[in-house]
Design a protein that fits this description.
The chain is of the alpha+beta class and 188 residues long. It is built from three helices and eleven strands. It is elongated and about 75 Å long.
Length: 188
């Protein structure tokens, strides 16, 4: 190994420090986007406090880029079709939703736009397995997972969540992907 001059060693150490700081900043940014369990629990309990506005089914609700109306919901232990079926470890909660993009651009919906909470504030994310099963059996209406919503065209769709049991839940509807304010609809 070559002997380095003090000037080259200093430059190398400075570069390592700068790279380390950049990596640390990147890790902090990624952690804040995804959130950690403590932040998620704090946000969930904030979103489900009694002071939040609670909407009911069949009410038009505006949130961010979208106008929503929850048309109904049901619980299914198994999503069944002629050639495919998927059984939940808990139970599937399927929510029938009408959505209209009220912005001027096409918007993509994904699982980060929606979640449900129970009466204890426990959060349940969108079920990819349940949505895939719904699509595989040709369920009507189609799932809204990864659906592009064109401006000013009302679209019916289904959201699928896996929850532990049948009961009372709150559906949280986001107006934008990856965060932002949500509105709450009582599924009762």
């Amino acid at each position: 190994m070559e002997n380095q001059t003090p000037k080259k060693k200093s430059k190398k150490v400075r570069n390592i420090i700068l790279i380390s700081i950049a990596a640390l900043v990147l890790i902090i940014i990624i952690a804040n986007i995804g959130g950690n369990d403590e932040n998620t629990e704090a946000n969930t309990s904030t979103n489900t406090t009694k002071t939040d506005t609670e909407y009911s089914i069949k009410t038009s609700i505006e949130s961010g880029y979208f106008m929503y109306s929850v048309n109904g919901f049901k619980f299914l232990k198994t999503i069944n079709g002629n050639y495919y079926s998927k059984t939940a470890n808990g139970t599937y909660l399927t929510v029938l939703l009408n959505i209209k993009n009220i912005s001027k651009e096409t918007r993509l919906l994904d699982g980060s736009c929606f979640y449900v909470t129970d009466n204890n504030g426990i959060k349940y994310e969108h079920s990819t397995d349940g949505s895939t099963a719904w699509s595989m059996i040709g369920g009507e209406p189609e799932t809204l997972f990864l659906k592009q919503i064109q401006p000013n065209i009302p679209t019916d769709g289904v959201l699928v969540f896996e929850v532990p049991e049948e009961g009372e839940y709150n559906l949280h509807l986001g107006g934008k992907m990856f965060g932002g304010k949500t509105v709450r609809v009582a599924l009762r």
